[in-house]
Amino acid sequence: MSATTHALHLDRFEAVKAGLPGDGRARADALARYAKLGVPTSKLEAWHFTSLKPLDEAALAPSDAKVAVTAASVAAHALSTSHAHHQLVFVDGRFRADLSRIGTVPQGVVLVAWSASKALPKDLLAEAADAGAMRALNAAYAADGAILQVPAGIALPAPVHLIFLGASGAAHARNRITMGEGASATVLETYAGTGRYWTNAVTDISVAAGATLKHLKLQIESGEAFHTAATAAQVAAKGVFDSFVLSIGGKLARNEIDAVLTGEGGNVKLEGAYLARDRQHIDNTTTIDHAVAHCDSEERYRGVLDDHAYAAFQGRIVVRPDAQKTNAHQLNENLLLSDRAEIGSKPELEIHADDVKCGHGAAAGEIDEQALFYLRARGLGEAQARGMLIEAFVSELIDGIADEAIRDRFMAAVGGWLYDAQGARRAA
Amino acid sequence: MASSTVETLQSVIQPYKHGFVTEIESERAPKGLNEDTVRFISAKKDEPAWLLEWRLKAFRYWRDRMLPEGDPTWARVTYPKIDFQDAYYYSAPKTKEGPKSLDEVDPELLRTYEKLGIPLKEQERLQGIAVDAVFDSVSVATTYKAKLGEMGIVFCSFSEAVKTHPELIRQYLGSVVPYSDNFYATLNSAVFSDGSFVYIPPGVRCPMELSTYFRINAAETGQFERTLIVADKGSYVSYLEGCTAPMRDENQLHAAVVELITLDDATIKYSTVQNWYPGDENGKGGIYNFVTKRGACRGVNSKISWTQVETGSAITWKYPSCILQGDNSVGEFYSVAVTNNRQQADTGTKMIHMGKNTRSTIVSKGISAGHGQNTYRGLVRVSPKAEGARNHTQCDSLLIGDKCGAHTVPYIEVKNRSAKVEHEATTSKISDDQLFYCRQRGLSAEDAVSMIVNGFCREVLKELPMEFAVEAQKLLGISLEGSVG
User: Fold this and answer.
1) Residue B482: its pLDDT value, please?
2) Of A308, A427, B239, B408, whose CA is between 20 and 30 Å from B70?
3) C-alpha count within 13 angstroms, C-beta hemisphere, residue A416
4) Which residues, including other chains, have CB under 8 Å from residue A68's CB and lie 6 or more apart?
C-alpha cells in the first residue's frame, strides 16, 4: 500500500464521515492515529513476515453496499438449517436484514446489527493506546457490525453465525461480543465473497467472570480478496475464551488475535489451521497476555502449504511480573507440499515470572514418507494417500470443535480445498 | 553523485589535514569520530592505502546511511543513547593508566580472581600491571609462535598480518561480515584497532588451542577488535576467546567483529568465555558488548562450531552465526547466557542453510536472576536450494527470582519442503524441592544453586575445551552470587 493510498484514506474520511454512526470524535481521533502510524511495513516487528504492498488502491474504494448478493449466494456459506442457529449477514460491511435470520433469543440477550440498534454501546470505537494502524482505520471507517450481549447466567443454546460477504471496495465491519458473568455462547464468523475487495474487520470481546465464549472463524474469502482482521478478547477470572480460526481463502490474509487474561483461573485456547496454495499469503499473528497469576493457555496452529504459498505464524506469549503459576503452551506445525512454498514462523515467549510452566515448539517438514508408504502399500493411489494424510493432519484439530454443524462446515471447507488442490495437480 | 565522487577523491588525495601532531605524541586520537579519526588510526598502524580506503568506505556508509537512522532498536535491551562523538576511538596501550600494584586494585576484583583460581602471577597479567608478567606472556606467545610457524600456521595480531600477509587479509576481510553489514559492524570496520588473525594451511590440524589469552596487547586494545580466522582445506583449529578479566570501565562500548571461513573439509571451533564487567547491583557501569560474529562454511563437509558462555557485560547483543554454503556443511551453536542484577542479554544465532544436506544444532541455555533480562533471538533459514537441510533448536530458560525475565524469539523461515526444522523451548525455575534436597545434604544455598545451574548448562559446558570449562563453571557460580536467600 503506497503513500498515495495512505493519503487517500485520510482525504476520503471528510467525504464520508457525516454518514457514519456513533461517536464522531472517536473516529477523528482514530484517523489521526492512523495518519501518525501509517501503513504497517515489514520494518515493524509485528509485520516482519507480511507486506501490505499488494493491497492496492483498487481495493480501497469505500463500498456503497449496492452490490447484488442474493439469498442463494448466502446459502452456500450458511450452516445447515437442520441445526438451530442465528444468522446475521453483512455485505461489504453493511447489515442486510433481508438475508439475515436472527430468530428468537432468550430474554435479555441482545443480538443486533448496529444499523438496526437503537442504542449503540458508548465505547464501540474505543481503541487501546497501543493499537495498530489497521485497527485505527477500522475505528475511523466502521459503519456497521454485530452486537451480541449475553447477560449474566444465560446460556445461548444455538450458535450465532455472522456472515460477511465482500464484493467490492473496503469493508470495515466492527463487532462487539459481551459475555456477562457465567454466561455462555458460541459464535461463528464466516468471511467470504466474490472478486476483488478488502475486508478489514475488528471483533472486540469481553468475557466476564466464569463466562465461556467459543469463538470460531472461517476465512474463505475469494482468491483475489484481501483480508485483515483483529480480534481482541479480555478474559476475567475463571472465564474461558476458546478460539478456532480456519484460514483458506484470500490473496493476502492476516488474522490477529490478542487475548488478555485479567482474572485468576482464566483459560484461553487458541487453535487454528491454514491451507494455502497458488500465491496466497496467510498470516496468523496472536498474543496471549497472562496479566495475572493462575491462568492457563494453550495454542496450536497447523498449516499446509502448496505451490508458491507463503504462511506466517507469529505467536507471542507474555507472562507478566507476578503472573505466577501460569501454564502456557504453544505449538506451530507446518506441512510443505511444494518446493516453492514457504513458511515463516516465530513462536515467542516473554516471561517475567519465575514460577511458571511455559513451553513452545515449531516444526516444518514434508509429508512423512513412511506414512505415505504405509497407505500406498494398502492399495491407495499416491494422490489419495497424500490427501488422506493432509486431511488427518488438519482434522486432528478440527475434531475438537464441539458444535457439530460448525465442525461439519469446517471439514467440508477442508475437503473442498483438497479437492481443488488435487484437481489443480491433475490439470498441471 | 558527481559532486560526492569529487569529494571522495579529494579526501583520498589529502590523507592528513591538521591538528594531529601533538595528539600523535600522546598516543591518543582526539575525542570524537570523523574521517580524520579513521585516517589517524590507519596512519598510526601504517596501513596500506587499500585498507584505509576500506575503512573510509565503511565510515561514510555508517555516517551517511546508518547514523541518521540511529542504532538498532529491535533487540530487547534498553540503554541511554550513545553519543558516538563523546568517545576516544584510538588509545595506545602505553598511555592506559592502570593500577601500579595489586594493592591498588579493587579488593572485590581480587576476591573474584581467587574464586576463579587464577594464580597471582596471572592475576597481575590480567590486570595489565606487572611488567614481568607481560614479559612472560610475550615470551610464551613467541615460543608457541615459532612452533606454529613450522607448520605454516599464521597466528598474529591483525595489524601484523596486514603487513605480513596482505593478500590473505585482502581476500577475506569483510567477505563474511561486509563493511555495510550492521550499525556496530560498520562502525568497527571504520575504526577497528586491532585483533587476531589466524590462517591454517591445507591439511593441517592445529596442535594446540589458540587463544587471545596469551596476547595481552590484543586484549588491551579493547573496544573495536577484529578477528579473522581462515581454515584452508582439510584443516582444523580450536580457538579460544577469553575475556575472562573483569574490566573496571564504565559503560564502555565494545563492538567487535569476528569472521570465520572454512573451506572444504575444514573445521573451526570457536569458544568464548565472556566476563566483561557487568556493572554493579544497581546497573551502574558495565560494558556494552555489541558484537558481530559470523562464520561461513564455504567448502563441502566443512564445520563451524560456536560455544559461548556469556556471564559478563551490562548489555550483551551478540548473534554468532553460520552461513552453511558448502554441501554437507555443519553449523553448531552452544550458548549459556547469564543475567543477574540489572544485566541485559539479547543473544542467539543465525543458521542460514544454503547447501544441500546442511545440518545445524542450536542449544541455548538462558539463566536470569535478580532484575536480569535474558532474550534468545535466533533465525533458522532454509533456502530453496538447501535440499535435505536439518535443524534442531533447543532453548531452555531458568528463572531465579520473580523480578527477572526470560524471553525466546525464534525466527523460522523454511523455503524447501525436504527440510526438517524443529524448535523447542522450555522455561523452568529452581524448585524448592531441589534446593531443599541439596541443603539437607550440607550444601550452602549458593553452592546448591551453582550446582543446579551447572547441571542445567552441562550440555553446553561439555563443548568447551577443558581448562575453559572449569573456569566457566566457577564463573557461573560467581555470576549468580546473591541471587538466592
Assistant:
1) 65
2) B408
3) 12
4) none
CA B236 from chain center: how many Å?
Answer: 20
A266 and A297 Cβ atoms separated by less than 8 Å: no
Residue A402: other Cβ atoms inside 10 A: 11
Within an 8 Å CB–CB cutoff, is residue A362 touching chain B?
Answer: yes
Mean pLDDT of A199-204: 96
Q: pLDDT value at position A273?
A: 97
E strand spans, A142-276? 146-150, 160-166, 170-171, 174-179, 184-193, 198-207, 212-219, 226-235, 240-247, 252-261, 267-276
Residue reference for cell 492496492: A56
With 80 as the cut, is the pLDDT of residue B215 above it?
A: no
pLDDT given for residue A249 in this prediction: 94
User: Alpha-carbon distance A188 to A144, whole Å?
Assistant: 17
Residue B2: pLDDT band (50, 70, 90) is very low
CA-based nearest residue to B103, from B130, B76, B84 = B130
Alpha-carbon distance of B393 to B334, in angstroms, equals 10
pLDDT value at position B114? Answer: 53
Q: Say whether residue A358 is in contact with chain B using an 8 A CB cutoff.
A: yes
B240/B209 Cα distance (integer angstroms): 7
Residue of chain B whose alpha carbon sits nearest to that of A358: B427
> Is residue B131 pLDDT above 50, yes or no?
no
Q: Chain A window 124-153: which residues touch B at a Cβ cutoff of 8 Å?
A: none
Q: Who has greater pLDDT, B463 or B26?
A: B463
**Candidates A41, A49, A289, A351, partner chain B, best to mutate (most B CBs within 10 A):** A351
Minimum-distance CB partner of A358 among B414, B418, B427: B427
Assigned C-alpha cell, A295: 491462568
- Give contacts of B404 with chain A, Cβ < 8 Å: 352, 354
Percent of chain B with pLDDT over 90: 36
pLDDT of res. B1? 35
Q: Where are the domains of chain A?
A: 3-263, 368-428
Task: Establish, for the pair of chains A and B, how many residue pairs have beta carbons separated by less than 8 Å.
Answer: 112
Q: Collect all residues of chain A within an 8 Å Cβ-Cβ radius of residue B429.
A: 354-356
Contact with chain B for residue A354, Cβ under 8 A: yes
Residue A12: alpha-carbon gap to chain centroid: 27
Q: Which of residues 43-102 of A touch B (CB under 8 A)?
A: 45, 48
**Which pTM does this prediction carry?**
0.84
Mutation target vs B (from A308, A349, A356; most B CBs, 10 A cutoff): A349
Coil, helix or strand for B67? helix
Chain B residue numbers with beta carbons less than 8 Å from the beta carbon of A344 are 411-413
Cβ of A359 within 8 Å of Cβ of B406? The answer is no
Grid coordinates of B392: 534442531
Q: What length does chain B have?
A: 485
Nearest neighbour of B426 by CB, restricted to A45, A322, A359: A359
Q: Are the beta carbons of A363 and B421 separated by less than 8 Å?
A: yes
Tell me which of B19 and A372 has the higher pLDDT: A372
Inform me whether the C-beta atom of residue A352 falls under 8 Å from chain B C-beta atoms: yes
Nearest CB among B409, B410, B418 relative to A366 is that of B418
**What is the per-residue pLDDT across A76-96, written as a single tens digit (0 to 9) for each?**
899 988 889 999 999 989 999
Q: Do B420 and A344 touch (CB under 8 A)?
A: no
The DSSP-derived string for B294-312 is: EEEE-STT-EEEEEEEE--
DSSP H helical ranges for A152-236: none
Tell me the average pLDDT across B16-23: 28
